[in-house]
């Protein structure tokens, strides 16, 4: 069925779909961006490293349940409609995020704190599992066949923009208050603000009409009565699902999370880069890289989706080790020359959430390259020079370019792979297994590898291996269907 809606209508659809999806990603990523603080607040303080890994695991749980959300909400979307399904996922996501901002700390309610966080992360993951497939399908089913990659690429920007907005809100909140106030209660503000964004997005989305392809199919009585069975019990369709997962989605997932989330984790936990500085580095790299989603989405309309996605995976697998080796060297104080005459000890006092007065002493080391290291009994913070900030932005920007190559074309690719009557269900599952399981587990698996081996680069074994496997499977089995009528 050829779709030729006026461009004005398409842009209205894109703006409404993207606004809601961006907010859902914002909600989802606040947790990851504040994982170091959440580890302190919601988990037992006796073992900080274990608490951080537990926080990453809780973060990963939200990804692991995404495939189940894809099945539940995909079925709903194929039976009831695209519009009402992603309205529901928006409300679940926003409500869960707001509630995380209200949970008392471990100091106040003990083990109940991490249990509540886990439950809300499960709700977030289920909602996000239904969101992406609905938004991507909705935009694709409104788009002209020969511009599908271009128009759906705007949906693809929302994940990165959601991370960018979450970092921006966190940084603004942090810079408007003292570090102690932010650590005590200010970190909750980004979670609580999400309720305002959700209300705004819901108002925009409720005014949309149903997808024309789905509306016509429903009018003719051709909608699926059992989309789960048709998607996964049908041998031919199941084969397409498996090809989509192992030939595209799992490689895209690890490249996406390495280039953004693992990069942030590496800056903060491995290199010990100061909180504000590390977030600014990531934010600048994301801002510079985001336009390339549109470029590669549009390019995929001309040369095909497969070439761009697989090239991105291969380049990422080849480049990760030298990129992270260069990053690690920038943060390695053993390679720096200290100006011993500038060494000093600073003391400051602050109050905890419970009102207890705490006095902290910091040893301050200054190095000839402009770096400054502050050490306390339980923490190290490295502030690097402007030159090193520039180099780190460049190194992470290169990783974001790989992200745009693998991610920009994948919505159009998945939509074109499956028939309209079961598209929401069929495309959502491989996408969310690839991203939720293979990608979402990456920060946890990589952090465990680094912790157990003591090798800062050991965490790269996982994303490089997955990207290479996916590249090989994709080269053999992927077929390009760019521009086919839906």
From TrEMBL:
Record domain Major facilitator superfamily (MFS) profile: where: 13-482
Q: How does it sit in the membrane?
A: Multi-pass membrane protein
Q: Could you name the domain of life of the organism this protein comes from?
A: Bacteria
Matching entries from PROSITE patterns are given as: MFS
Q: Where are the transmembrane segments?
A: 12-38, 50-73, 85-103, 109-129, 150-173, 185-204, 238-258, 278-296, 389-417, 429-451, 457-478
- The keyword Transit peptide is assigned to this record: no
- The entry's protein name is Predicted arabinose efflux permease, MFS family
Q: Give the source species.
A: Chitinophaga arvensicola
């Amino acid at each position: 069925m050829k779709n030729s809606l006026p461009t004005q209508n398409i842009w209205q659809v894109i703006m409404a779909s993207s606004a809601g999806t961006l907010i859902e990603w914002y909600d989802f990523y606040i947790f990851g961006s504040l994982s170091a603080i959440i580890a302190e607040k919601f988990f037992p303080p006796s073992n900080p490293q274990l608490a951080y890994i537990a926080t990453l695991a809780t973060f990963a749980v939200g990804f692991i349940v995404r495939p189940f959300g894809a099945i539940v909400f995909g079925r709903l979307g194929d039976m009831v409609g695209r519009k009402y399904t992603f309205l529901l996922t928006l409300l679940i996501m926003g409500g869960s995020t707001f509630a995380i901002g209200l949970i008392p700390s471990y100091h106040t309610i003990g083990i109940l704190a991490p249990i509540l966080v886990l439950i809300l992360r499960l709700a977030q993951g289920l909602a996000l599992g239904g969101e992406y497939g609905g938004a991507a399908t909705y935009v694709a089913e409104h788009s002209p066949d020969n511009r599908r990659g271009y128009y759906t690429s705007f949906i693809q920007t929302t994940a990165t923009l959601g991370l960018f907005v979450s970092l921006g809100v966190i940084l603004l909140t942090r810079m408007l208050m003292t570090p102690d106030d932010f650590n005590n209660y200010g970190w909750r503000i980004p979670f609580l603000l999400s309720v305002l964004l959700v209300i705004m997005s819901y108002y925009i989305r409720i005014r949309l009409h149903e997808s024309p392809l789905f509306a016509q199919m429903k009018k003719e009585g051709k909608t699926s009565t059992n989309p789960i069975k048709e998607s996964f019990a049908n041998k031919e369709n199941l084969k397409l699902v498996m090809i989509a997962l192992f030939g595209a989605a799992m490689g895209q997932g690890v490249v996406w999370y390495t280039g953004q989330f693992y990069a942030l984790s590496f800056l903060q936990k491995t290199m010990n880069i100061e909180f504000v500085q590390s977030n600014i580095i990531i934010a600048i790299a994301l801002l510079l890289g985001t336009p390339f989603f549109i470029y590669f989405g549009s390019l995929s309309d001309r040369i095909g989706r497969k070439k761009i996605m697989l090239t991105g995976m291969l380049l990422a697998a080849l480049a990760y080790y030298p990129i992270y080796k260069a990053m690690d060297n920038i943060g390695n104080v053993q390679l720096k020359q200290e100006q011993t005459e500038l060494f000093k000890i600073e003391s400051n006092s602050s109050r905890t959430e419970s009102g207890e007065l705490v006095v902290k002493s910091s040893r301050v080391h200054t190095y000839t390259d402009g770096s400054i290291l502050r050490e306390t009994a339980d923490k190290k913070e490295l502030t690097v020079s402007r030159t090193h900030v520039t180099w780190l932005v460049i190194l992470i920007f290169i990783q974001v370019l790989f992200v745009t190559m693998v991610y920009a074309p994948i919505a159009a690719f998945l939509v074109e792979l499956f028939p309209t009557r079961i598209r929401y269900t069929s495309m959502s599952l491989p996408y969310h297994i690839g991203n939720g399981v293979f990608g979402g587990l990456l920060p946890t698996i990589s952090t465990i590898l680094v912790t157990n081996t003591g090798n800062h680069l050991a965490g790269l074994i996982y994303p490089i291996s997955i990207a290479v496997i996916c590249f090989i499977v994709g080269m053999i089995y992927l077929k390009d269907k760019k521009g086919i009528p839906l």
